[in-house]
Amino acid sequence: MQQRSIDVGVLGATGVVGQHFVSRLSRHPWFKPVWLAASERSEGKAYRDAAPWRLAAPMPEAAAGRTVHACVPGSAPKILFSGLDASVAGEVEGAFAAAGHVVVSNARNYRMDPLVPLLIPEVNADHLAVLDEQRRVKGWSGLIVTNPNCSTVVLASALAPLRQFGLTRVVVSTMQAVSGAGYPGVPSLDILGNVVPFIGGEEEKMQSEAQKILGTDGGRTPHPVVISAHTNRVPVLDGHTMTVSVEFRERVTPETVADAMRAFSGRPQALGLPSAPVPAIEVMREPNRPQPRLDAERGDGMTVSVGRIRECPVFHVKFVALAHNVVRGAAGAAILNAELMVAEGLA
Amino acid sequence: MQQRSIDVGVLGATGVVGQHFVSRLSRHPWFKPVWLAASERSEGKAYRDAAPWRLAAPMPEAAAGRTVHACVPGSAPKILFSGLDASVAGEVEGAFAAAGHVVVSNARNYRMDPLVPLLIPEVNADHLAVLDEQRRVKGWSGLIVTNPNCSTVVLASALAPLRQFGLTRVVVSTMQAVSGAGYPGVPSLDILGNVVPFIGGEEEKMQSEAQKILGTDGGRTPHPVVISAHTNRVPVLDGHTMTVSVEFRERVTPETVADAMRAFSGRPQALGLPSAPVPAIEVMREPNRPQPRLDAERGDGMTVSVGRIRECPVFHVKFVALAHNVVRGAAGAAILNAELMVAEGLA
Amino acid sequence: MQQRSIDVGVLGATGVVGQHFVSRLSRHPWFKPVWLAASERSEGKAYRDAAPWRLAAPMPEAAAGRTVHACVPGSAPKILFSGLDASVAGEVEGAFAAAGHVVVSNARNYRMDPLVPLLIPEVNADHLAVLDEQRRVKGWSGLIVTNPNCSTVVLASALAPLRQFGLTRVVVSTMQAVSGAGYPGVPSLDILGNVVPFIGGEEEKMQSEAQKILGTDGGRTPHPVVISAHTNRVPVLDGHTMTVSVEFRERVTPETVADAMRAFSGRPQALGLPSAPVPAIEVMREPNRPQPRLDAERGDGMTVSVGRIRECPVFHVKFVALAHNVVRGAAGAAILNAELMVAEGLA
Amino acid sequence: MQQRSIDVGVLGATGVVGQHFVSRLSRHPWFKPVWLAASERSEGKAYRDAAPWRLAAPMPEAAAGRTVHACVPGSAPKILFSGLDASVAGEVEGAFAAAGHVVVSNARNYRMDPLVPLLIPEVNADHLAVLDEQRRVKGWSGLIVTNPNCSTVVLASALAPLRQFGLTRVVVSTMQAVSGAGYPGVPSLDILGNVVPFIGGEEEKMQSEAQKILGTDGGRTPHPVVISAHTNRVPVLDGHTMTVSVEFRERVTPETVADAMRAFSGRPQALGLPSAPVPAIEVMREPNRPQPRLDAERGDGMTVSVGRIRECPVFHVKFVALAHNVVRGAAGAAILNAELMVAEGLA
C-alpha cells in the first residue's frame, strides 16, 4: 500500500459524526484533517471550544487548536468529508461539488439521486462509473459520493454475498443504538430500560437504499429484492443489531450462505485500503453472537459481523447481523469511500 | 360476577413466578393463597425467610408468616398454581394431578402434551374439552392445564383475531425482558447496554406452541400457519416486545386487521372474569407505541398491546405487539386460566 | 377527613412536572384540575395535543379534552399549582399572587425568598406563619408557597427527626434519577451505562435549602448545620438515592436515630391529609435497601425511605435515604402543601 | 526500558479477572502467559473450551490452544498471577509461595497480613521491604504480594499525594461497576435502572486497606487517617466512581490539592515500567468529569482520574475520583506489581 499524505477537510466537524471523522482521520495513514468547518455560530472559534466532544478517545491535539471555518468553498482542501445535518447538507454539498471539491458525504440528501453513487466499497465499487454522467449532467467540476444510512449498510453488506443465489424477499427487524440518533438525540427518559419500536423514515430508507446499493447500472436499476423492515431503538450505545430472514429464487442452505459470506471480499480488500476490514464479513460460530457490546468494535469498527445462520421455516435462511453504526455506518464508511476513490484515481 | 372465596396453593412459591403468584393472589377477589410450597431447602421456613422477594410491591403480610410446605400432596387445597422449574415440574405436577388436584401450571413440561390444554382463555377456551380424555387416558382424578411461554402468549393473542382471514405465514422478531429468565437469570455483565440475540429453546417454543394454541380439536390439530421466530434479549425489565409480519391466504388491509383486533373478545370478557382485560387487545394509534416501560402494565399487566399496524411490503400486514411477560406471560395467565375453569365449573 | 371539592389549575401543565400534577390531581379526593395553562405555543390547543405525555399512566380523559390557557390571571381558579420553568416562573407566579391566587409552586425562583415558605409539611408547617408578612410586604392579595428541590426534600426529611439531637455537620452524596432533569433532559448518550458526577447548581441548593427548611422563624433563621453535598446523575428513571454521614453535638447511636425516624410524624399525619404517607419515614431493616426501583413508589411515591442506619467512623451515624424525585420531590410535594393550606384554612 | 522475555502463569485463568490477565499479558512486552491453571473441572481442557470468555477483545490465539492445568506447583513458571476466588486463594497461593513461586495476587486473603505487601507501586513501593521478613517468618522460598480491592485502589491513589498535608478524615461514597462483582455476579434484575446501596464487606475493606497502603513500616503501622465509606452498585459496566471529602490537619486549598495530584509520580514512572500510566493521576478540568464511560480506559485502563476538586463546606477539599476497576483495580494492578518486582530484582 503506497504512502500518501493528503490534506482533507470536514464539513459539520462539531457534530457527533463530525467528531468521529476528526478522531479517525487524525490517526489515518493517508488523510490529514487540516480544515474543519461547521455552522456560523462555531465559525472563528477554536475546535476545542466549538465541539461538545462526546468520544471516549480524547480530542486530537492538532484538531483542538484549529480554527473552525464556515461551510463555504475557498480555503478548503479538495477532499471533504461531510457530517452535515440533512437540513443543510443538500445545498452546502452541492456548492462544494460545483466548486470542484470531492464531497464524501454521510448525509442522506443525495443518496437516492440516480447520478450519485451510494457506496459500500466491498459491494458496489462499480457504481463509481456514474460519476462521469454526474459531472456532465450536474455541471460540477467536483463530485459527490455518499454512504448508506447506518442500518442499511449492515443489511446491504450481509445480503451482497447472497445476490448470486437470487435474492427475492427479505424481512428484517433492527435493534438500533442510540448513537444513531446523534446528540442530544434520544432522551434518556425515552429509552432507559425501554424499547421504542419506531425510527422516523428509517424503514423506508433501508428498503430503498438497499435496493439501489445491490442494483446495477450504477444503482439506476434497483435490485428486485423486496424488503420489509421493522426498525427499533434499544438502550445500546453503539452497534446496530438486526435479525434477517431471506428468501431465494430457489432453496439455499445455511452452509452455502455461511461459505458465501466467509468468501466475500471486494475492491477495498483487493487494494488493501487502510480501513478495509479483513475479513469483510466475520461469520461467528458462537450460538449467541454477534452482540453489540462485544462485536461492534471488530476491525476497528469496520467489520460486519453475522451469526446464527440457520434454516428459516418461512423463507430459506435466517441470521443475525451487526455493525458499528457510527463507524461502518457513518464516519468509517465515508473514509473507506474516500480511500477507494483515491486508490482508483478519482480523487 | 358472583362472589367466591376459594383456598388455593402455590407450587414453587419462592421463585420469581411464584412470588408473582403470591402477590397477585393475595389481592384476588376469589382466590386465597393459604398453602405455599417449594423445594426441600425451604420446607418448614416462614415464607418471608424462604423467598428472596424481588417485587416492588411489598410481600403480603398474610403470606410472609406462612410456613413453606414441601411439594407433596396431602394438606394442599384442591386448586394449585405451579411456578415450578421445568427440571421438577413434570414429576411433581403429575403427582398432584393423580392425587386429585387441579394443577394450573406455568411450567413448560406438559404444554405440548396432546391431552393437556395450552390455554389462552380469550383464544382457545374450547380446548378445555380435552380434559375428559386427559382424565381417562392419564387415569388422573385431578387435572393439569398450562399457559404458554411468555413470548408465545403475545404472538398467539395478536394472531388469534386474524385466524378468520386465513393465516399462512408469520415472521416474528422479539425484544424480550430480563425478567423472562427468572432470578438470578441474566447476568448484568451480559445485558447492560447490550443485546443477546439468542434465548435457548425459545424460537422452537414460539413456533410450536402458537400452532397448538391456534389449532382445533383441543389443540391436537395444530393451526397450519408457518412461523419463523427470532428471539432476542434486551436490557428491559418487564415486557416482551415483538415485530410481526403476517401473510394471509389473500390480501387483507391494515384497517381490517386493526378492526378485528379491536373487536376481539373471548370467554373471559363474556364471563367478566376478574383478571380479564377489557379490551382484550389494546390497539394503539401513536406512531411509536407500544413500549414496554409505558404499556406493559396496562390492564393490570393482562392487556396485549398492538401498534403500528401497517402494510408489509413482503407479506400483507406488519405490526408491533407487546405484553407483560411475567403477568400476561406467566402468573396472570395461569390465574386467568383458573378463573375460567372455576367459572366453567371445571374446578 | 372531611369531603371537599375544590377547583384548581396548573401552570406549566404540559411539562414533565405539569403532567404529574395533572395525573395525580385527576385522581385526587379534594382537587379538580379544571384549568390548565402553558406557554403561548400551546394556548388554545387541546391538552391531548399540547402535552407530549411521558407517563406510564394514561392521560386522564377529562384533562385530554381541556383547552390549554395562557399563563395569565383571569379565568383561573384560586388555587394554582406551578410546574413552570424557572426562566418564567418568577414573573408569572408573582403576577398570579398579586392577582389574588394561591400559588403552590415547584419552581426554584421564590424558594430562598425570606418571605416565602419553603415547605415540607411534616417538617416545617409552622413556616406558614410567614405568609402574613409576605402579603403585607409584597402587597399581594394572593400568596406563594414553594416546595424544595427534589434532592433537598429527601435530605431535609431524613434530617428533620434528628434536629433534637443537635445536628452539626452532614456530608451527603447523591445518585439522582434522570427524571429530575425534566424532558428531554439528559441525553441517553450521556447517561447510558454511565455516571455524570455533576448537576448544575444542585449542590448549592441542597446546602442552602435544607438549612432554611430546618431553620426557625419561618425559615428566616437558617439551621446552623453545615452540609457538604456531592450530586451525581445515574441511569435510574425515578428515585433519588443518597448516602448521608451525620455529626451531632454529642454522640448519638444508630438505634436512637432509627427510633427517632420511626417515631417521626407531622401535621399531614395529624390532619390525615390525603397525600400524607404513613409512616412519614419508612425505616428499612434489609441490608441492601432502600433501592429506587423497589422503594420509590412507596406511599404512592410520598414516602421517604431510609436504610442501613449504622455507625459512621468519621462522624456519628450514616445511612441511605431515598424518595421519588418527581412525586415527593415535586408534584406530590406541592399537592401536599396545598392540602395542608386548605386544612389550615389558608387556601 | 530494557528488553525482557519472562514466562509467567495465571492461577484462576478462566474467571473474569483471569481472563483480563490472559488478555493483557498476551500483549505484554515482558511477560508471556505460557501456563494457565484453574479448578479441577477445567483441568485438561483447552483454554478456549474452559473459559467462558467475556471480553470484547477476542481471546488471544496462543492462549486459546493451551491446556488448562490444575492449581498445583510443579510445571508452573516462577512468576504467577492469581485471579483465584477468595474461597481457595489462601491455601493455593500459600502452597505456591512455599514451593518457591512469586505469587502476584489479586485475591483478598493475604492483603491484610502484616507480612504481605498490599501494593500500589506509585504509592508504597517501599512496602516491598517487608518481603525479607515474610520469607523468614513464613519459611517460604517464594513470596506473595497483593494488590488492593478495586475500590480501595482508587481512593488510596487519590489520597497518596495528599499525605504530605496531614490527612485526618475522609468520607467517601462510591458508585461501582457491575464488573467488580465478577461473573455471573450481579443479576440484571437487581441492577437495571437501579442502585443497590450495599456491597458486602466492601466498606470495611476500603477503610482498613487504605490505612495499610498509606501506612509506614511496610504497612505494619497504618496511616492514622479515619475513613468512612459508603459503597454502592450502579448500572455501569466498568469503572468505579467515587465522591471524596477530605479533612487535613490544617486548611489546604483545592489548588494545592490539584497541584499535588498533578505532580504525583512514583517508582513505576521513574523506572518507566510498561504499565505505568503517565501521568499517574489525570486531573481533569471539565466541570462534569471524570465519567466511567469516557474516562475508565485512560492510560490503557491504568490511569486514576480526578475531577471537580473544590472547597468542601464540611472539611477542606472534595473531589470525584475514578479508575477502571478490573484493570487498575485488579489485573492491571497485579501486572504493574510484577513489573516493579522484576525491575527491582525481586522476581
Describe the structure.
The structure is a homotetramer of 347-residue chains. With 347 residues, chain A is an alpha/beta fold. The first copy, chain A, folds into 2 domains: 6-149 and 331-343, Rossmann fold; 152-324, Dihydrodipicolinate Reductase, domain 2 (2-Layer Sandwich). Chain A contains 13 helices and 12 strands. In chain A, the strands form 2 sheets. In chain A, strands 3-2-1-4-5-6 form a 6-stranded parallel β-sheet, sandwiched between helices. A 6-stranded mixed β-sheet of chain A has the order 8-7-9-12-11-10. In chain A, helix 1 packs across helix 13 (327-343). The longest helix of chain A is centred in the last third of the chain and has 17 residues, at 327-343. The radius of gyration of chain A is 19 Å and the shape is globular. Chain A starts with 5 loop residues before the first strand and ends with a helix. The mean pLDDT of chain A is 96.
**Secondary-structure content class of chain A:** alpha/beta
CATH architecture of the largest domain in chain A: 2-Layer Sandwich
Count of all domains of chain A:
2
Oligomeric state of the chains present here: homotetramer
**Outline of chain A:** globular
Largest sheet of chain A: 6 strands, parallel
String of helices and strands of chain A: EHEHHEEHEHHEHEHHEEHHEHEEH
Task: Tell me, rounded to a whole number, the average pLDDT of chain A.
Answer: 96
Instruction: Give the % helix of chain A.
Output: 25-40%
The CATH class of the largest domain in chain A:
Alpha Beta
